[in-house]
Amino acid sequence: MTAQILDGRAVAAKLLDAVRAEVAGLGRKPVLATILVGDDPASHTYVRMKANRCAKVGMESRRIELGADTTTGELVARIRDLSEDPDVDGILLQHPVPGQIDERAAFEAIDPAKDVDGVTRTSFAKMAFEEGGFASATPGGIMALLDAYEIPLSGKHAVVVGRSPILGKPAGMLLLARNATVTYCHSRTTNLAAMVSEADVLVAAVGRPGLVRGDWIKPGAVVVDAGYADNKGDVEYEAAADRASYITPVPGGVGPMTIAVLLAQTVRAARENRP
Length: 275
Hints:
The chain is an alpha/beta fold. The chain has two domains: 28-111, Rossmann fold (3-Layer(aba) Sandwich); 137-254, NAD(P)-binding Rossmann-like Domain (Rossmann fold).
């Protein structure tokens, strides 16, 4: 068996075409404020990519750079200013942030109506209770990618490897909302290989390169690798592709979908908050 590629670049391009058309119909440019703390090279690259995508769909990207010695209080104050700025539609705090910062406190300073990256407790609760709100961008991108390929989820066993509050946990909740039976795995899971081998749908989201061995994959499973492109992903790709029915490449799978969903949710925020 050779897996079909879940092409995030192609699906994201279609979503961004729809975003561009929606922006044109608004009559004004939605504004996404991106906050970057410190000098992490990968974070700078991601922020540039997001700014470039904003420009291509007719949105405005407002970039705020803060020093590596920024305190939690200083960052929270800046985020609250942006939350109160009527010209800002969406707020993104690029993570990770330097170690001295309480990242959760910073996230919670974001007005939920502008939380287009889906990182606040309010957004998570609304998503979990299926009451609207903004999905965490990467899990939302994963779901949009699965939908684009018409992957059936109802009744399937979905295994999520990872439990971060902005990736693993919300991914599992979104799969549960589609009537999948969800198992969470993590660093304390006993016999991870056995758990993964039972998955009809696997989401690997731990940021540990090659953690999931290809021979663990159930024949015919759908494999979504949300690991970092710099680390070549969490899944042993070649061996997994020989067993899976569908698989995401790294890069080119989940990453482009994350940015596309972020911009789509920014346009939605602009429409709902400033009709």
